[in-house]
């Protein structure tokens, strides 16, 4: 485990264990972070599915939302999705760095065999080069899908604003990819359905089986957003998805 800490120190410099650690020079991320507040959860039923709850503090969530707003992508009500390939906005690059750093810190601190990302994903450069921001009004969600195979393994989603339940459904053999945002996978036989609560500021990491053999879906129609027997209150929700395009040689 010391190795992980040493790597972390080498890459990001020394960091204290105090609550007042300041990370990233960028003004978006110059807010102080509370390291203790975030907690990693491995979803037992699904290999390769990890959550980091409170990955972003409320202040950081606000900073991220205002950086997204400043892009001017969602000035019209009809606009609910923005995609970027290649050079990502500075705030998305910073967010990617923050994800890498959080994983490294966790690896350095824990004794677990399983890790949120394999070293080959964690150390690839860039970690991510494709971005989607989705904005959902109450009642709107996303159909069950596996992300397109032109994206590499290791996908991150940061969930903002409204809490929601994302359902994962196991798929026979993984299936082919279809349009990630609109169509359902055909002819697949659900084996198991696992609900996962995404509170605001949660990071989702999907790799391996979670990325290739499970569909993910957010159904925000009445009756589907139930957690602990209580229907969640819905507000506008924003999510940031980060992925890496597969290399074409
Ligand atoms: O909004 C979300 O949390 C999920 C987004 C997603 O799955 C995607 O863009 O592929
Ligand atoms: Fe997806």
Automatic annotation (TrEMBL):
Residues 127-246 form the Fe2OG dioxygenase domain. Coiled coil: none annotated. One of its GO terms (cellular component) is mitochondrial matrix. It holds the Pfam family 2OG-FeII_Oxy_2. Belongs to the alkB family. PROSITE patterns: FE2OG_OXY. One of its GO terms (biological process) is fatty acid metabolic process. PANTHER family: ALPHA-KETOGLUTARATE-DEPENDENT DIOXYGENASE ALKB HOMOLOG 7, MITOCHONDRIAL, SPERMATOGENESIS ASSOCIATED 11-RELATED. This is Fe2OG dioxygenase domain-containing protein. SUPFAM superfamilies: Clavaminate synthase-like.
């Amino acid at each position: 485990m010391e190795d992980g800490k040493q790597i972390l120190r080498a890459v990001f410099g020394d960091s204290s264990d105090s609550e007042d650690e300041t990370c990233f020079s960028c003004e978006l991320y110059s807010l102080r972070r509370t390291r203790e507040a975030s907690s990693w959860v491995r979803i037992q039923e699904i290999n390769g599915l990890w959550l980091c709850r409170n990955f972003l503090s409320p202040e950081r969530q606000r900073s991220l939302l205002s950086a997204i707003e400043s892009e001017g992508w969602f000035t019209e009500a009809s606009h609910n999705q923005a995609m970027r390939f290649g050079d990502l906005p500075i705030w998305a690059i910073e967010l990617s760095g923050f994800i890498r750093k959080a994983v490294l810190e966790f690896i350095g601190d824990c004794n677990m065999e399983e890790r949120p990302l394999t070293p080959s994903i964690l150390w690839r450069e860039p970690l991510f080069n494709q971005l989607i921001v989705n904005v959902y009004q109450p009642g709107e969600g996303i159909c069950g899908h596996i992300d397109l195979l032109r994206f590499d393994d290791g996908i991150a989603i940061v969930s903002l604003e409204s809490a929601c339940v994302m359902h994962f459904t196991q798929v026979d053999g993984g299936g082919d990819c279809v349009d990630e945002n609109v169509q359902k996978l055909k002819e697949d036989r659900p084996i198991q359905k696992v609900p996962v609560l995404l509170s605001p500021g949660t990071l989702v990491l999907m790799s391996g089986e979670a990325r290739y053999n499970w569909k993910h879906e957010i159904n925000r129609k009445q009756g589907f957003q139930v957690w602990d027997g209580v229907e969640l209150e819905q507000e506008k929700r924003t999510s940031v998805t980060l992925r890496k395009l597969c290399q074409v040689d």
